[in-house]
Specification:
By secondary structure, the chain is an alpha+beta fold. The chain has helices at 9-21, 28-40, 57-71, 76-80, 101-111, 114-117, 133-141, and strands spanning 82-85, 88-91, 123-127, 146-150. It has 7 helices and 4 strands. The longest helix has 15 residues, at 57-71. It has 2 domains: 9-80, Helicase, Ruva Protein, domain 3 (Orthogonal Bundle), CATH 1.10.8; 94-150, no CATH class. Helix 1 packs parallel to helix 3 (57-71), helix 2 (28-40) packs antiparallel against helix 3 (57-71) and helix 5 runs parallel beside helix 7 (133-141).
Amino acid sequence: MTHDRPHTVGYILKASTEFLAARDVFEPRKACELLMGCLLNCRPLEIYVKFESPLSEAQVEAMRRGVKRLATGEPAQYIVGKVDFMQHQIKVDKRALIPRPETEELVDAVLSCDSIWKEDHPLVCEIGTGSGCIIISLALARRNGTYTATDVSE
């Protein structure tokens, strides 16, 4: 990211993506969109309506720090500290795995299991909860249950 170009959202996003692509970072555009969305406090798709907007030097520097971390292999979700899961934002860091899309399918399968939810107050337990995304999503979707989750990490 050079200083001879205007520091617009679009330019910084493009330059960051190219930098990471040259270093074989997995899905560099998606990772940069996640960082930029966090920087601008918007969803990644909303970035595109702000493409010509200038970034402050502090914003450019924050993006540069995030891109450098991505280049070392750190996941974007750990850098921004959150992940979207089942239409909720879940806090994540290096102590827990980042939930995968398949985990949302697991939650959907549990939610559609009638034998669990026919009970007045079903007891749902999760061992090794990590970020808590599964148990939190279940509790938010089915408020009639009693939920317990454990993990070795506080």
